[in-house]
Specification:
By secondary structure, the protein is of the alpha+beta class. It contains twelve helices and nine strands.
Length: about 350
């Protein structure tokens, strides 16, 4: 019978001691300009995050909880989005070398990539720590949210290149409660695959080349994998705001890769197309600059007289887009309506009614 997972006692005791030490040090008011206190504030939320990931519940007085909650904005402000971006860029650029290097050079690269992934760990632990005291996800500074989405956009398609890290990936999250490990998807996804998985991929390609009928067996195996994949039904739905930002940065990353550019800035401003409807001969184009959703009516199409595009949350509320330049409409992503998980954009053209479901259907 498989033993039930239990957190390591040494880690449980160590994080409790560290938490208490930091709280004692931070007992007085913190001046936001006092950069010497930054590391301690971050360490506090990292420790709280680790304990939450281990399934431990904190027993805090209401005063202490309020004190910790007051530190959340400082912790988020102290995080460095540029480090997350640099880590993602380095992983994408250097991961292909895992199949080329040997011995000491390989070990050095593995250490480097592991540290890059741990850079993302630190951010996630701080966010989890903040959520554990707030009871909800914290509101992120735009630069930090951008960096996190960029990391995801760059890494999700290239993560398979890290399979040669093998047991390092499994070891990185063994301390976490099993159901919490997917929060660290950069370690968890495929962590059960062998270190030689990419070499096996080459073997599979040769088998199919030599024995074409083997492709049918491979496709059957893929179907089976999809069938047994974890269901997403129970996962918490993300907001429309997160959905739009995620789509924007996925499309931005794709655009940069096509241009051969891997250096991505953490600021916002560049307009990225989210959707053209219909794709082959668009009447409507949705874009975002990271702060607003922009809707363009493509010539020669025009809105029906007096009408404006509307974002509608069925059974709840509607919000009209604001007209700007001729044929362009916008909505700020900070609007309350974007906290909903799903909705529809209604555009009443002179020739037809267009309904866009959001999140977009893949």
């Amino acid at each position: 019978m498989k033993a039930m997972w239990q957190p390591e006692k040494e880690l449980v005791d160590g994080t409790a001691k560290k938490r208490d030490e930091i709280l004692c040090e931070l007992s007085e008011e913190i001046d936001p300009r006092d950069s010497k206190r930054y590391p301690k504030v971050l360490e506090l939320f990292k420790v709280l995050g680790m304990r939450h990931v281990m399934g431990l519940e904190e027993t805090l007085t209401s005063d202490l909880r309020e004190k910790i909650i007051s530190l959340v904005p400082l912790a988020l402000a102290y995080l460095k989005p540029e480090q997350v971006l640099a880590a993602a860029e380095n992983i994408v650029l250097r991961a292909p070398e895992l199949l080329l290097l040997e011995d000491e050079a390989l070990t050095k690269l593995e250490d480097e990539l592991e540290q890059d992934l741990k850079t993302r760990d630190r951010v996630e632990l701080v966010l989890i720590g903040a959520r554990s005291v707030l009871g909800c996800d914290p509101e992120l500074p735009l630069e930090l949210e951008t960096a996190i989405l960029t990391f995801e956009g760059l890494l999700k398609e290239e993560l398979w290149r890290l399979l040669p890290l093998g047991s390092r990936r499994a070891a990185a999250i063994v301390w976490a409660k099993p159901e919490m490990r997917q929060r660290f998807w950069w370690w968890a996804l495929g962590e059960d695959l062998p270190q030689t998985a990419l070499e096996d991929l080459s073997t599979s390609a040769r088998i199919i080349h030599l024995f074409p009928k083997a492709r049918q067996e491979l496709e059957s195996m893929i179907v089976a994998e999809k069938f047994f994949e974890f269901s997403e039904a129970g996962r918490e739905k993300i907001s429309l705001r997160e959905c739009f930002l995620k789509t924007r940065y996925e499309n931005l990353c794709q655009k940069k890769r096509q241009e051969g550019i891997f250096k991505l800035a953490a600021d916002v401003g560049e307009e990225i197309v989210l959707l053209r409807e219909p794709e082959d001969s668009p009447k409507i184009t949705l874009s975002s600059d990271g702060r607003k959703i922009l809707l363009d009516i493509e010539p020669p199409h025009r809105l029906r007289g007096g009408e404006k595009p509307v974002l509608e949350i069925p059974g709840r509320e509607k919000k009209e887009f604001t007209p700007t330049e001729r044929g362009r409409y916008e909505l700020l992503l900070d609007e309350e309506i974007f906290k909903a998980p799903a909705g529809k954009i209604l555009v009443l053209l002179e020739t037809e009614d267009v309904f866009l479901e959001v999140p977009f259907k893949k």
